[in-house]
Amino acid sequence: MGFVEPCVKVAVLAPVRQLFDYLLPAGLSASARVGCRVRVPFGRGIRIGIIVALEAEPSTGAKLKPVIEVLDDEALVPPELMALARWASEYYCHPPGEVFATVFPLELRRGEQARDALEEAWSLTDEGAQQLVGEARIGPRQRQVLQLAVAAPLRASTVRDFPFDARRVVRELVGRQWLEVQRLSARRASTGAPEDFLDLNEAQAAAAAAVIAGLNKFSPTLLEGVTGSGKTEVYLHLARTLQASGHQTLVLIPEIGLSEQLVQRFQRRFGDAVALLHSELSDRERALIWERCRSGESGVLVGTRSALWTPLPRLGLIIVDEEHDASFKQQEGFRYSARDVAVMRARQAAIPVLLGSATPSLESEANVARGKYRRLRLPERAGGAVPPTLRGLDVRGLPLSGGLSDALCQAMDRTLARGEQVLLFLNRRGYAPVVLCHACGWIARCSRCDARLVLHREAGKLVCHHCDTTLVLARQPPRCCENPALITLGVGTEQLEEVLRVRFPGRRVLRVDRDSMRRKGQFEAACAAVRNGEVDILLGTQMLTKGHDFPLVTLVGVVDADSRLFATDFRAAERFAQLIMQVAGRAGRGSRPGQVLVQTHHPEHPMLQNVLAHDYPTFARMALDEREAAGLPPFEALAVLRAESTQAETPTQFLAALRRDLKPGLPAEVRLAGPVPATMERRAGKFRALLMLSAMRRSALARALHELLSLIDAAPLRNRVRWHLDIDPEEVG
Ligand code: ADP
Ligand code: ZN
Asked: C or N terminus of the chain, fewer CB within 10 Å?
């Protein structure tokens, strides 16, 4: 038997769909472990990768290249997270190296050291301490530096602020072994005394107890409760219980800007023990938090989607707040659902996972119906307020001003006269969605998309909401005809605000959308102003449906429900219901019940009727029946292959050829649909088409996708399109 050189299997951080074997030189084998990063030759360059397996023998006979360097002396990614990333790579048919690239903060992806994320500090050794007693022969600066290290380790940031070159002094002292090097996490401002926990009410206590009873095993739970029913308080209690037993809690939230109240409550209760991870942090801060979690220093991690991939060695519970929110699904690159992968993480780690929502996703509803998830309800709003009433407002044939009917305006008058607040929901930014020339019929369209340009009058621009193409009206006025006479059709939030100021003079109007809330903290301040009663009429987009409560609002007006009723996507009904319920849920607290008026031209529309019956569970049951009848998720597993190109025909040709080649070998249970052009065929200059694959059994779909990927590898047109696979897509358009 010949000598067998050891080798390792590596996921190279590159967009390639396979793992690679490398030889492990004898000098490196001592530190090489699964979960360590390595530097390896790859193509013509050198790349970072992660060891996913240690093998005594290479799996191919080919001559292997050796690993250049092992970057970590312990596994940077614990086995549990390694398994999760590999599972996700398979499940989402995504290159393993790109999945691992999601796991690592940028600095680690670049090969920098994890512990560099921690601040360097120096502590006094016993010998060093002796130098400070008596009259040892020691310079005044040395003494000064040593003295600073007496009470607590001396931090690099402190040393930097010295008037003399204290780094040099520190180096000397380290050389003499009077100081020794340490790593500390960066100093954070103390947040003062932690806030007290509230006593849970009966339903909250029952929910918390049910989760606690399932600790140390996989037990997925759906916590259903309207806004204000006390879900966050349950999360806080659970995190505290976990902390007391030495476990970490991971809390996933949809968007940082819209979840500020929740974040602040965690910070006030847990102080420095809570770490916060979101996309607005610098790379350095991300790396630091990652390291604090990995080292076990942070007991609670609150974060958006990508926080899911943080190593948490003592993880005991995962909470996903607003689990129905679409932002948990990444919409580019590695298209994963943080909610779904969170459930898998909990399963692999054998811990409970709690999914919270007022309007659960139909996926989770179906999992409850199948007995896979347990459902817990928080039936009441804290404070015992009654739920709002919902009513459709038939606006057919009625004069509308700025999109508002007289009936709605009168209801607003009555509400305002009682000193209560009104919230108007209109999910359309800008002044008007259509700009038309009255003289010649020209319509302002995006040159790069099949879309119309939206007038933003405040900014003096026409803007495409799909690719951000912008025409500055002062510089590029439309020259459609001899005498352009521009008029607008439709109403956006800017225009609604204008109309409100005229129709309700003296009332304090506040508009909340992405244009009016650009600066950091602005949205928070606006919400606080509303809660403090400094606003009479609040109007805005989707932003208003998330996160915040407005107890003084007693009337909610949905200005235009119709655009949603005829959306073609299979999730349209679910999204519409969630939206109405969420916006309704913001209103009415205490003794004043809320009222929701939904303006529509289609009061008899069944979807609207269902939603207005104001019972989300009933709606969900009916919607699930429809999905089942139509063979749609969550009853069938669905995947979409999308392709795009600057050439109009190429994406469809590419997909049609794949379909043709795929068909013969496909089991009957896998259904193919398409290729069809995307709902908006051209976007940002690219033509887009899609092919859908579905099957009752996920395993059958997975096999078909596997086959599809190998066909793509051999497809003649594959270099003339950009393509991606989207598993469990949010939408199929
Ligand atoms: P949700 O997360 O479901 O929107 P919250 O946990 O934010 O609900 O609770 C809504 C409001 O009720 C908050 O102001 C919270 O402080 C208060 N609250 C929640 N639970 C309790 C409780 N057990 N006792 C007193 N107040 C509570
Ligand atoms: Zn565009």
From this structure: N
